[in-house]
Amino acid sequence: MAFLIHAVSASATGREIRRSRRIEADRLTIGRDPGSDIVLADLEVTLQHAVIVRTGTHRMVVRSLTGLPFSIDGRSTVESEVDARSGAEVRIGGFRMEIAWDEAEQAITVTVERYGLLAASSDVRDERQLFTLAGVAPSRRLLAWGGALLVLLLFLAWPVASYLGASGKKLTAQQMEAGASGFHGDRSWSAGPLSTAHANLTNNCTACHAKAFVSVRDDACKTCHTTVHDHADPEKLRVALAPDTIGGKLSLAVAHAFNRPAGRCVDCHTEHKGGSMQIAAPNQKFCADCHGALKEKLPETKLGDTKDFGTNHPEFQPAILVQPGDRPVFRRTSLDAHPRQETGLIFPHDIHLSATNGVARMAQALGQVKKGGLDCAGCHRPDPNGAGFRPVTMEKDCQSCHSLAFGRREGQIRTLRHGEVDQAIAQVRDFYAAGGGTPVQPLAGYMRRRPGDFASAQIAGLAPAGSAAQAIHALFAPNGACADCHRITGPSRPGAVDYKVAPVTLPDQFFVNGWFDHRAHTQEDCASCHAAPKSADARDVLIPGIANCRTCHVGENGGGIAKKAKVASGCAMCHVYHKDDRRGATAASREQKRKIMQPSATASVRNSG
Question: Which CATH class, in words, describes the domain spanning 3-135?
Answer without folding.
Answer: mainly beta
